[in-house]
Amino acid sequence: MKAFIKIFFITVVVFCSFKNNSLAISQKKMQWLSFPKDFKWCAATAAHQIEGNNKNSDWWLWENQSGTIKNGDNTEIAADHWNKLKEDIDLLGQLNLNTYRLSIEWAKIEPTQGQWDPEAVAHYQTEIRMLSDAGIAPLITLQHFTLPQWVAQNGGWNWNGIADAFAKYSEFVYTQIAPQVQDWITLNEPMVLVFAGYLEGIFPPGLKGKFPDIIAPITGMLKAHAAVYKKLHLLAEKSDQPIRIGFAHHLRKMYPANSLNPLDLLAAHYANEAWNWAFPNAIKTGRLIFSVPFTLSANIEIPDLKGTQDFFGLNYYSSDKIHYSFSDGFKRLDPKTELHEKNITDLGWTIDPKGFYDILKQTKNRFPDLSILITENGIADATDFKRIPFIHDHLIAILHAIDKGAKIEGYCHWSLIDNFEWAEGYTPRFGLFEVNYSTLERTPRPSATYLSKIAKDNGFIGKK
Ligand code: BGC
Q: How many Å lie between the centroid of ligand 1 and the Cα of residue 420?
């Protein structure tokens, strides 16, 4: 009898929740959805991926070694953005964007230590001026995966002189190239870089290490970030022009591969803490803490680091299902083996806007004082069939998070134009504008028209 009552009770609860849910879904109507006033509409790029001829960088050496890049692609010309500044800034105008996230190449500005290249300096000064003339606010990334060769030869992120060298270069960029720019990003995706470069060996320096090997380069990055934060803020105080400094962090929603398996549940928990939060927490508290049983452990105080972020730069692309076994350790399930083709990108990444919403909520709860800037979100989709729904669904996730109290100040789509996708070469197509690599012609994809209308109206008709 007891069992019968229990089953009856569960059935009623499930039925009611299903009914409520289906009601909720059917009640969703198309409606006008607007974004907060002064919302930043933005596209993002990185210099090495589009400019071409970055010959003093570590990536240049790396990509010219055989077997490092798919199809043997390299960035000799890339999308030739270096020679197409005016044309590409016009594209931003066509998209009605008010913000552009670009990066400046350290290897071009300072090809040998302490020597500043006048041609590169003049080039970036022109770029910043052209953006201001077009009414587009630059959001500058100081380091987007690449390093000058002389830094790499000294040990890259493991070199104990890197914080000082990076701060000198950043001071030069700020004072000589962009003193009027308000928003700055020191580093792009530190966790991606250390995993790919120091653990998996697919980015320079190409080290195939063990988990503890990421601690030294991460510490180097945190020290470099802190040094730049301090230096640029001091300079800005003297100039009376306020600036804001953050970094762009790659966050992923982590699910257990099997939610009934306690090991998978724990694995997803630790992956979330280590991959997503250790770096931003370190900046909040001044202490780098990794605590993943049998895998990664650190507790390091970093001087001058505490409180050195003025906004939370968030890159979101995808989610992972994490499995743990004692024999193989942590494993990510391959989405291709279990998802329908419509739910994955050309790179085989899961499309998961719900995961984005969840990540935004976690960010808001963990960093309630910081406003969030989506510094990257996009999809590899050569046909452009999936990009419009992708943008729609991720913007809806942003609106839901705003309703729940997240302060989200803007959205940068990755990317403005097709680009060199690091180890994957030119095959993945992330651009709102397609690049024909034979003629270098740019052609808007339908998604470019879609986003440009949203940016113009600061809203769109959708189902929330
Ligand atoms: C990086 C970009 C990259 C994009 C798509 C981000 O991880 O910041 O450089 O092209 O994702 O993979």
A: 10
Q: Tell me the C-alpha distance between 133 and 323, whole Å.
A: 51
pTM for the model stands at 0.94
Q: What is the mean pLDDT of residues 206-217?
A: 98
Q: Ligand 1: which residue has its CA nearest to atom 10?
A: 421
Phi, psi of 380 (to 5 degrees): -80, 110
| Pocket lined around ligand 1, Cβ cut-off 6 Å | 46, 49, 188-189, 192, 250, 315, 376, 414, 421, 430
Which residue among 275, 422, 429, 432 has the greatest number of ligand 1 atoms within 8 angstroms of its CB, and so is best to mutate? 422
Pocket test for ligand 1, best of 73, 247, 421, 429 (most atoms within 8 A of CB): 421
| CATH, domain range 30-462 | 3.20.20.80
Residue spans of the domains in the chain: they are 30-462
Is-contact 364 398, C-beta < 8 A? no
Q: How far is the CA of 289 from the centre of ligand 1 (A)?
A: 25
* DSSP label of 462: E
Question: How would DSSP label each residue in 290-348?
Answer: EEETTTEEEEEE-TT-TT--SSEEEEEEEEEEEEEETTTEEEE--GGGTS-GGGB-TT-
pLDDT of 343 strictly over 70: yes
Does 268 have pLDDT greater than 60?
A: yes
For the CA of 378, the closest atom of ligand 1 is: 5
The residue nearest atom 5 of ligand 1, judged by CA position, is 421
Q: What is the pLDDT of residue 240?
A: 86
Residue 382's contacts (CB-CB under 8 Å, 6 or more residues apart) are 346, 428, 429
- Ligand 1 atom at minimal distance to the Cα of residue 46: 9
| DSSP state letters, 170-193 | HHHIIIII-TT--EEEEEE-HHHH
